[in-house]
Every structure is written in structure tokens, then in C-alpha cells.
Amino acid sequence: MGIFMKYSRRKLSPVSLALALLACQAQAADQGYPTFDFNAYGTIGAAHSTEDKADFVSGPGQSEGAGDSEDVTFAIDSRVAAQLTVNFTPKLTAVAQVVSEQRDNNSWTPYFEWANIKYDFTPDMSVRVGRIVLPSFIVSDYRKIGYANHWARPPVEVYSMVPVTNSDGIDAIWRLNHGNLTNTLQPFAGRKNLHFGGATWEGKHVLGFTDTLEFGNALLRASYIRADVTSAGAINQFFDAFKQFGPLGSAIADRYQINGTRIEGIVAGARYDAGNWFTMAEWVRTSSHSFLGSDRGWYVTGGYHFGAFTPFATYSTRDALDNYEREQGLEPLYRALPPQVLPVAGFLNMQLQGLIRSTDSSTLSVGTRWDFRENFNFALQLDHVDLEDGTSGSLINVQPGFVSGGSLNIITATVSFVY
Amino acid sequence: MKKAVHILLAATLLCLGSNVASADVVAVVSASSPLTELSSQQIADIFLGRSARFPDGRTAVPLDQAEGSVERSAFYQRYAAKSPVEMKQHWSKLIFTGRGQPPRQVGDAAAVKAALAQQPNAISYLDRSLVDGTLTILE
Questions:
Q1: What ipTM goes with this model?
Q2: How many of the other CB atoms lie within 10 Å of CB of A36?
Q3: pTM of the full predicted structure?
Q4: Do B98 and A275 touch (CB under 8 A)?
Q5: B69 to chain A, minimum CA–CA distance in Å?
Q6: Host H or E run for residue B48
Q7: Is A295:A264 a contact under the CB 8 Å cutoff?
Q8: Which of A88, A143, A167, A177 best tests the B interface by mutation, with the highest count of B CBs <10 A?
Q9: Mean pLDDT over the full length of chain A
Q10: Burial annotation A354-383 (CB, 10 A radius, 16+ → b, else e)
């Protein structure tokens, strides 16, 4: 066998792999394979905001929310998903999950959240190829599954810092058990394209890993992710306009545009489940040399089980780490510009300020989950959001008359199910 | 309204409490298995999908009783300190991210005994009073 491998490795491998899989299939067919599993999950959520001159949304990919667009919106927390799992053999599994939720352009077109093939080399080591889940946060794997979580939605400040939930590529899951400790290491690589804000964001060389350590009631998690991102669309034309303004304009474009720009994130988290009560906290840091800048965010949450009710509270916050408020943009050029060009420079500068302005905010949430029926749960949540002075936080569709800074309250009610 | 909520809460707590307390459920393997003991943590890890092997390296195959049964609720309450809702949440997190599938559900106590007899690698749970010579209790 060894001689064969050395002799014609490249030609032989795909063929031998295919033959091995066929042989497995033939054998597995006797044992009742392939098997099919269908699962589904969904949430219907209603939210109301006390700020009616802007929209509160639950993530960056949404175009409409609670406040200005709707008094009570069903669009920011509702979704439905269906999943098919096929076990071809005991070691080979294919999974596809389709999700329908609000997306850019207010469409609800279903898309593949993920679709991949998994091979278990051993019960503790498997590799997946295709569209896979990006496990950046403790809860990121299942942030969309209302039933799996206690809150009505994951803390917006923190979860909007890494808005991607999947990537197209490959990952490996390698698990080690030692006594009462279980360690799971998950490296991944791939690419990811996102459409939001009217632009396409192409993420190449997505690379990272997540390590999870579990012992008894505790779980610790650390994650690193990076990607080289290039934008396409209106945002490119915007920075091209700066390049018309000589060396200063070009310097500004280079500093802020996203053109093969490396964006990195680190996440650290911990969770403790004591049976009756639980607590969880995560801390995130992202950085990039672009208008996205560098941010830090964290949250802490906890809850207690009173029979079918689980009251909880969460505090989350996000801080920009750069001093972009000091950016003068094209101002140094104003005196020397011809009068007809001045308004253009002024407009570009204003737009730039808007892009680099921080989206800092803090939120205190209280609420309760109610498991009123098998496979279903209800969640009620009240959020008090404090916006950084002079900013609109994560709010979108900001209308004239909006008073920046200040605070707003959100009330949310959701019903979720799993099948 | 307040009184109704109190009654509802009390009734829920009572229902959950009484069911679980009445069953003395133990983890068992076939008597033909080389395994004689396993810690609670290791048993929990196998049934929660965190571990796929016994300490001696053999593959472990966990088997569940029917969903909603008293023995099943008591087993997970005792070994994993999780209620049926928490168990469902636990598996939702793994199923919908492709990281695992729940143990095969075999049925009632009789079905468990039959399945364990056929598979020395299998592990399951039974009410203590139903354990006979064909099974080993793992304390």
C-alpha cells in the first residue's frame, strides 16, 4: 500500500477515495443507511421602540426596524429555517440549512445558511467542506435559534461587531477528552461575501480558530478570526472622489477605504450553568485600518430557572478604540479650492464623518423566558439603550429631527419553536 | 391576575418536582461489557455528545428512553442537572450547527434491555428496580 501511495499519489488518491466511499456505502446500506433527518426552527418576534426618528435593528444586515419604519415591527427578530441531514454512512454526513429572515433590501429570500459535507475520521476528529458555521462567539453558532437561548435576541452591541455567521470553505473539529475535561479545537478557512449597506463586501483568506474548554458546569472559549476584505459598489465611488483631491485626498482614501484590508477579531467568553441559575459573558475586540476602525465590546448575562420561567438580565456595551472624531478630512484644502468645488469637498467630508463616527452604545436588558409548551417558548424583553453623545449607535434610517446621543427603550416579545 | 400567576408557578414547580423525584434511575451497560464503573461526569459527557468513548478507548453508544418518559427526565436531572427543556436546548445547539446528533431513542425499559444485550458498546439507563443479572450498574 505504501509503495502505491508514493508511486502515483496524485492520480490514485481521488480514485481510491471514491472507491473507499462506495465500499462504505455498499456496506452501510445493509445497516439501514442512508438515514434522513428533518429539523426546523423559527421565531416570530414583535418589537417596539420609543425612538421614532430612527430604526432599531437587531443586526447590520437589516434595512428596516422598529421606530421610524414601523411602530411595531415583526421584521427584526422573525425567521424560519429548515434543515435536512443525510447520513450516507456512519462517517459521512451531508447537511443543508435554509433560512428566511429580513435581509438587505428588505427581502426575505431564503438562502443557504449552510450546506456542507462532513467526514468523521474518528469519533473525535471530523472535517467539513462547504458552507460552514463561523463559530466566533459562544452563542454565534446558534444565535438565530430563539429556542436555544434565554434572551429575545443576542446583545446587539456585541453581536454586530462580527456580523457574519457562515463562510464557504473548510473546517476541522478535533476533540480531546481527559478525565472531566473536554477540549474542542476548531480551525477554519474560507471566504465570505456579504451584501449590506448597498455594497458587496468580499472577504478572502478568512482564517481562524475557536477553542472551547468544558469541565463540569463551566465552559471557556477563545476565538480568533481574520479576513482580507474588499468592497464593491457605491462605497468605492465615494473613496474614488477623495482621490480627486490631490495627495491629501489620496491619503484619506488609503486610510479609510476597504481594499484588501485585513480585518481581525478576537473573542473570549465563559459560561457557567449551575442547574438553577446560569451566567455568561463575552468580550470582543475587532481591528482594521479602515473606516470600520477598531472596537471593543462585551456583555454579561445571567438568569434563574423558576419552573417554566427563566427571568434574566443582560448588560452589553461597545466602545470605539480610535480617535476618528479628530479627523479633519479635506478641511485643510478648503481655503485653496475653487468656489464651485468647495461644496463637493464639504459634502464628502460630512459623509466621511458619518462613516467613521462611532456606533457606541450600552444596553441594559431585563426579561423572562417562558416555556409554555413542549418545543415552544415565549420571551419578553425590555431594553434600555444609552447612545454615545453625538452618535446614533447601531440605529439606521436616521431621520431629520433625530436628537443624537440620549437613550431609547425597546420592548420585544418573541415566540420560538424547534422541530 | 397575580394570584393566577402564583398558582401557575406553583403548579409547574410541583409537576416538575414530583415526576423526577419518584424515579431512581441508574446508568447501565450490558454485563458482557468490560466496563464496571464510570464517573457521573463521564456518563454525562457521553450522553451530551461531549465524549464518544469510554475511558478504555472503546466507542460509546448512548441510548435514550422515549422522550417525555419519567426515567429519561430523572436520568438527565441526576447526571447532567438539566431539565427536559434544557436538554432540548442543548441538542438544538448541536443539531442546528451540525456538531452532533442526539442518542438513538430505543423505547421503554424492555427495549433498553434488548438493545444493551445486542451491543456491548452501548450504554443506557433504567429504573434501579428493573436491573437484572444481564446488566451492570455504573455507579
A1: 0.81
A2: 8
A3: 0.84
A4: no
A5: 13
A6: none
A7: no
A8: A177
A9: 88
A10: ebbbbbbbbbebebbbbbeeeeebbbebeb
